[in-house]
Amino acid sequence: KMAADTSVDILQKVLENEILQSTKVVEEHLDAEIQKLDQMDEDELERLKQRRLEALKKSQQQKQEWLSKGHGEYREIPSERDFFQEVKESKNVVCHFYRDTTFRCQIMDKHLTVLAKKHIETKFLKLNAEKSPFLCERLRIKVIPTLALIKDGKTQDYVVGFTDLGNTDDFTTETLEWRLGCADVINYSGNLMEPPFQSQKKYGTSLTKLDKKTIRGKIYDSDSDDD
């Protein structure tokens, strides 16, 4: 018993010492930074200020440029021809191929509207699949909704139905954001190794099955039961 107590005491002292040491390191680092600032002369501070201002100006210009190209809002484009033009002028594009009669497209719309405002570095578009047979053929779009994820004019990835989004109609905007982050088509600040729907599962979210077969290359809704 005594020996056990002693080892607990030793362990506690070691831990306290560790904490003290790391606190000391942090404090020393802060002291060094403050000292560095104190020692800076007027010219150096002025240069630092200028650099900060230039960086701010640059990011404002970038923001304006994105907005002028139609970023920042989720828009419908009228035709396939517009698709090529829109994709050519932006580095990152998410395009939702939808159909009016598919209710899952409305679910997708809701989330994309939110993400378009949040991620102005990316252009968010929607295109009616029935009005774009050439593109659907070329991009092999068989299930609606499908998101085409495009970087530098090339389609890199697809989100087909809701399979990647936890296989449920009530997936969160965060889940879709994570999926777009995986494709590197938005600037994602979360942890890509942890899909948001994993934490939902712990609390017993009922997951509905969505996989849909495609027959003879026809386009099917991921929520219809056609055979």
Can you give keywords for this protein?
single chain, 227 residues, alpha/beta, Glutaredoxin, 2 domains, 5-stranded mixed β-sheet, 7 strands, flat, Thioredoxin-like_sf, cytoplasm
Quick recap of the structure?
The chain is an alpha/beta fold.
Strand and helix order: HHEHEHEHEEEHHE
CATH homologous superfamily grouping of the largest domain: Glutaredoxin
Q: Per DSSP, what share of the residues sits in E-state strands of 2 or more residues?
A: 5-15%
Structural class: alpha/beta
Strand order of the largest sheet: 1-3-2-5-6
What can be said about the biggest beta sheet?
5 strands, mixed
Number of helices: 7
Q: How many β strands by DSSP? A: 7
Low-confidence stretches: 202-217
Distance between the termini: 73 Å
CATH topology description of the largest domain: Glutaredoxin
Per CATH, which architecture of the largest domain?
3-Layer(aba) Sandwich
**Overall pLDDT metric:** 86
Estimate nothing, just give the exact number of structural domains.
2
Helix fraction bin: 40-55%
Based on Cα principal axes, name the global outline: flat
* Name of the CATH class of the largest domain: Alpha Beta
Radius of gyration: 26 Å
Subunit structure: Forms ternary complexes with the chaperonin TCP1 complex, spanning the cylindrical chaperonin cavity and contacting at least 2 subunits.
InterPro entries: Thioredoxin-like_sf, Thioredoxin_domain
Subcellular location: Cytoplasm, Cytoskeleton, Microtubule organizing center, Centrosome; Midbody; Nucleus
Protein name: Thioredoxin domain-containing protein 9
